[in-house]
């Protein structure tokens, strides 16, 4: 079966789309800041036009479900739901942190990755992931397992958890958080990478095994992952 997937991501400052068609990948990446809503649909149209495809010729849509900014994740979720409903397509949600780990693997062959994206408010979107090669009837894929679950926390809390795990050795550090906060800059665990933000391109690699394992949802069941929503709720006066 020739799988055709379109991935999009607006969860961070980056805005990206990527297409898998006839076994080949194409992608468009921009740093859009506050213009995601203006850029993402034209980028989708452009990448489909380049391949002579219509939306209803896709097998599924893939999207970065977060973590990321409220606005960015919400934009990506809304656009994905609208496109999927209009073309009657299933949706494959992908973690933005896992996508960055996948980028580390594809670009640097790293299978041990620590992600830290600047979340503002002296916090980072943080996870520690280790890759496991899994063989199936559809081929060999890298599955990312959480050593430390994705979360939003202060740089100091991230460091404390890594130390508690006695983290050492050949880890690759990815994300904007390593340069944004002095605590992380001065205490790298392994090598700091030039990979700063997630890209839809690397979501495709994660979406392929998810498709074959039927790990997709209906458009109406798509749910974003903010991570910060519960923390913010608890900080409100009168909330526990």
Task: Characterise the protein shown here.
The chain has 240 residues and is an alpha/beta fold. The chain has two domains: 5-95 and 199-235, Nucleotidyltransferase, domain 5 (2-Layer Sandwich), CATH 3.30.420.40; 96-192, 2-Layer Sandwich (Nucleotidyltransferase, domain 5). It is built from eight helices and ten strands. The protein has helices spanning 36-51, 70-87, 96-108, 155-164, 177-180, 182-186, 200-212, 228-235, and strands spanning 5-9, 14-21, 24-31, 60-64, 91-94, 112-118, 124-136, 139-153, 172-174, 191-192. It has a five-stranded mixed beta sheet with strand order 3-2-1-4-5, sandwiched between helices. Strands 8-7-6-9-10 form a five-stranded mixed beta sheet. Strand 1 and strand 2 form a beta hairpin.
Structural class: alpha/beta
Task: Sum up the overall morphology in one term.
Answer: globular
The CATH homologous superfamily name of the largest domain equals ATPase, nucleotide binding domain
Write the CATH fold name of the largest domain.
Nucleotidyltransferase, domain 5
Report, as a whole number of angstroms, the end-to-end distance.
Answer: 51 Å
Radius of gyration, CA atoms, in whole angstroms: 18 Å
Order of helix and strand elements from N to C terminus: EEEHEHEHEEEHEHHEHH
Determine the strand fraction and express it as a percent band. Answer: 25-35%
By DSSP, the count of extended strands is 10
CATH C-level category of the largest domain? Alpha Beta
Looking at the overall shape, the CATH architecture of the largest domain is 2-Layer Sandwich
Mean pLDDT: 92
Low-pLDDT parts are 231-240
Count of DSSP H/I helices? 8
Q: How many structurally independent domains?
A: 2
Keywords: Cytoplasm, tRNA processing
Subcellular location: Cytoplasm
Pfam family, one: TsaD
Protein name: tRNA threonylcarbamoyladenosine biosynthesis protein TsaB
